[in-house]
Amino acid sequence: MQVLVRDNNVDQALRVLKKKMQREGIFREMKARKSYEKPSERKTREKAEAVRRSRKLARKQAIREGLIAAPKPKPRFSGPRRPAAVPSTASRAPAGESNV
Question: Helix 26-33 to helix 10-24 angle, to the nearest 10 degrees?
Answer without folding.
Answer: 70
